[in-house]
Specification:
34% of the residues are buried. The mean pLDDT is 95. The chain is elongated and about 60 Å long. By secondary structure, it is of the alpha/beta class.
Length: 199
């Protein structure tokens, strides 16, 4: 199925399956592909962002299940709070899935990390479809789910043939995005699948 994702500026990505087939003005792509389904988003299409804290957020942080909120709260747990939890493979895998889902809410399409050590985390991350890119050394600063908490690193521009990974932010332009941050994300797409949509 062909899907045209377009933003308020008239920019569009034509997606077929897991890949970008074309990028350009909506009018041109819609005329060339009149049977494509059209998704109209408020704001701007972007390539999405890379979170540099993959190891810290996925293997050294516990993301509580909503059902644990009364006992553990809703914020990620690290340090002594994490050490106090009885962790096993199932719990690490579930935490990693929730961690990735929280990253998607900030327009993250890739995580940078050294090789993941925990098999359960490796499997969970692979199943989510988020891209994993290598990093030569630990990232500086305090780990955060928000890529704008430090200097944000954008993913490479989307081109024909590239993976259909991108994010949409409800802002007028990149200047407003820099000012308001990644909490303005309204949608994140990985491999052509809409995996986050703000309601």
């Amino acid at each position: 199925m062909l899907t045209l994702h377009t933003d308020s500026r008239g920019h569009a990505h034509l997606v077929r399956g897991e890949r970008i087939e074309a990028v350009g003005p909506l009018e041109e792509l819609a005329a060339a592909h009149p049977h494509a389904r059209v998704r109209r988003w408020p704001g701007i299409l972007t390539p999405g962002y890379v979170n540099p804290y993959g190891n810290e957020l996925l293997e050294r942080t516990y993301h509580p299940d909503p059902r644990e909120a009364d006992a553990l709260g809703t914020e990620p747990l690290t340090g002594a709070a994490l050490d106090a939890l009885p962790m096993d493979d199932a719990r690490w895998g579930a935490s990693a899935r929730r961690g990735v889902q929280r990253m998607l809410a900030y327009g993250t399409v890739a995580v940078a990390c050294e090789p993941l050590r925990l098999r359960a985390v490796q499997d969970a991350v692979r199943r989510t479809g988020i891209a994993v890119v290598p990093r030569p050394a630990p990232a500086a600063g305090t780990p955060s789910l928000d890529p704008f908490a430090h200097r944000p690193e954008a993913a490479p521009p989307r081109r024909p043939g590239s993976a259909a990974h991108f994010a949409v932010f409800d802002v007028e332009d990149e200047t407003e995005l820099a000012a308001r941050g990644a909490a303005t994300c309204v949608a994140t797409v990985l491999s052509g699948r809409l995996l986050f949509r703000r309601r």
